[in-house]
Each structure stands twice: as C-alpha cells, then as structure tokens.
Amino acid sequence: MVRVLKTAVVQQDIIWENATENLGRLEKIIGDFKQDLDLLVLPEMFHCGFTMQPTNVVQKPGGAVVSWMHKMAKILNACVMGSIVEQVEQQFVNRLYVIDPNGEESIYDKRHLFRMGGENKAYKSGDERLIVNINGWRICPLICYDLRFPVWSRNRNDYDVLIYVANWPSTRRDVWRSLLKARALENQSYVIGANRVGEDGSNNYAGDSMMIDAKGKVLVEASEFVEEVIYSELSYNDLHQFREKFPVWMDSDDFEIKI
Questions:
Q1: CA 46, CA 11: separation in Å to the nearest integer?
Q2: Which domain does 233 fall in, by range?
Q3: What is the CA radius of gyration of the chain?
Q4: Alpha helices of 133-235 — where are they, by DSSP H?
Q5: pTM recorded for the entire structure
Q6: Taking a C-beta distance cutoff of 8 angstroms, is the pair 166, 43 a contact?
Q7: Is 140 among the residues known to form the active site?
Q8: Torsion of CA 108, 109, 112, 118, to 10 degrees
Q9: In this model, does residue 9 exceed pLDDT 60?
Q10: Distance (Å, whole) CA 107 – CA 254
Q11: Mean pLDDT, the chain, as a whole number?
Q12: Residue 259 is assigned to a structural domain of this protein
C-alpha cells in the first residue's frame, strides 16, 4: 500500500500583534486552497508575530486562537499545527499545538529560547519533545531556534517527519536553508520548514518555506518574500525503502539529554 502525507505549509505575512486580523487573513488563504489535506502547518506565533511583549497577545488555554485551530481542523478534516503565546500559571510559553479533526490536542513548548532577542527573559523554556501520530506517520514538531541544536532533534528511530515552525529573519536565510537540509540528512527524515514573510519592525522575512526528503532534496519551496501556500505529498514507502537500504541510524551514538 502506498501511504502519503498530504501536507500544506502557509508562508504567512503576519500582522503585528493583531490576532483578529491574522486569523481572518488565514481563513481566506486556507479557504482558497482546494487540496485535500492530512496536515496544515502554520508559522511560529502565527496569530501575532515574534513578540517579546507576551502580555499584549497572550492566549489562555482553550482561548480564541486555539478554538480557531479546532474549527479549521474540522473544516479541513486535517491536523492543524502552529505555535502561539500562552500563559501557564504565572509564566508565558511559546507553545506549539497540533490539533486533529476529532479535537485531540498535543502540545510542545519551545525548548531553545532566542536569547539574542530576549525570548529567554520573556518566556519559559520547555523540556520535553513531542512525537505525534498523524495517519500512521510519526511527526516531531519543533520551533525556530531549535533548528540550531541537532542533539535536541536527533532521530532515535522515533519519527518520520521533522517540522520547524519559525519567524526566521532574511538576514540569516542561508543558515535556515543549510540547517534544514542538514537535519534531513543526519536524521534520514523528511524535514518541513514553515517560515513567515513580511516585516515586524525589527526584521524582515524572506520565507524560504520548504519540504525536503531524507536525501536532502528539496521537494517544494515557496517563492521568496511572497505570502503563499506550498503543498506536497510525502511518500512513506520512499522514506522507509531508503532507510532500509542505507540504515545509518543503526550506527548512531547513544546519549541522554540532561535537563
């Protein structure tokens, strides 16, 4: 049986700290996209942009943005993924949600906080990876700056697709493109990068959203500086035939991450 993961990435122009406008624009973009989907991937902080003023945009668990994600998952009959600003007790987190059409939620809190932008002062770091099952595919979602830390993303033969949602500036776009390919090659995994376009006052963003196979080949790539949706059907058979023929993972080093 040929199994595919029908995947779309929204390369979004995010309106600064305006959840209502961002969700409205996204509904229009997604509504115009007619492909059947298993997974829709949105950028980091898709409701507000990469802000270090979390009190301006914070969502409570089960709030308006998460409710919107539930609605879109039902409409699309697909999983919806993206990160938001959320408050947990007295602390803020950059929290990625994966919401399926049946309403099941999975969460991942960003592990590596971008200290050069003050994220480590505004948010609390997470300490657990997430592997979520989507139609038999094992998916590991991470967030932006996590891309620079290969130990955290190391494939222990426990995932098939590695996803990074991001607000990655155009000044470092060569790093983004290089590391996405490196993560695919070293982990023998599909890699998806979902980045934004536009400006936020501090940076501008080229996008460079893409999907890459386990051999480092770019399957599909968004146009630079353009808001658009990219789509690909990832092949489970192709991935596992390659892993069986060239089982690099069997010679990998054992290690433990100490939190």
A1: 10
A2: 4-251
A3: 17
A4: 173-187
A5: 0.97
A6: yes
A7: no
A8: 150
A9: yes
A10: 26
A11: 96
A12: no
Catalytic residue check, 6: no
pLDDT in tens, 84-129: 999 998 999 999 999 999 999 999 999 999 999 999 999 999 999 9
Three-class secondary structure assignment of 83-102: EEEEEECCEEEEEEEEECCC
Least confident residue range of 31-35, 53-57, 128-132, 251-255: 251-255
Residue 259: per-residue pLDDT: 65
Q: Which residue among the candidates 44, 86, 140, 181 is catalytic per the annotation?
A: 44
- Cα 238 vs. chain centroid, distance in angstroms? 22
CATH of the domain at 178: 3.60.110.10
- With respect to residue 258, please indicate whether it lies within any of the assigned structural domains: no
Contact of 125 with 108, CB cutoff 8 Å: no
Tokens of 27: 């509904």
Which position among 48, 79, 140, 144 bears the catalytic label? 144
Please write the tens of the pLDDT for every residue from 139-156: 999 999 999 999 999 999
Can you name the residues that pair with 162 across neighbouring β-strands?
140, 191
**Cβ–Cβ < 8 Å for 178, 207:** no
In the chain, the amino acid numbered 232 is S
Residue 144 within a domain:
yes
The number of distinct structural domains making up the chain is 1
The answer to whether 70 and 103 are in contact (CB under 8 A) is: yes
Catalytic residue among 79, 110, 124, 140: 110
> Is 227 labeled as catalytic in the residue annotation?
no
Q: Is 238 within a domain?
A: yes
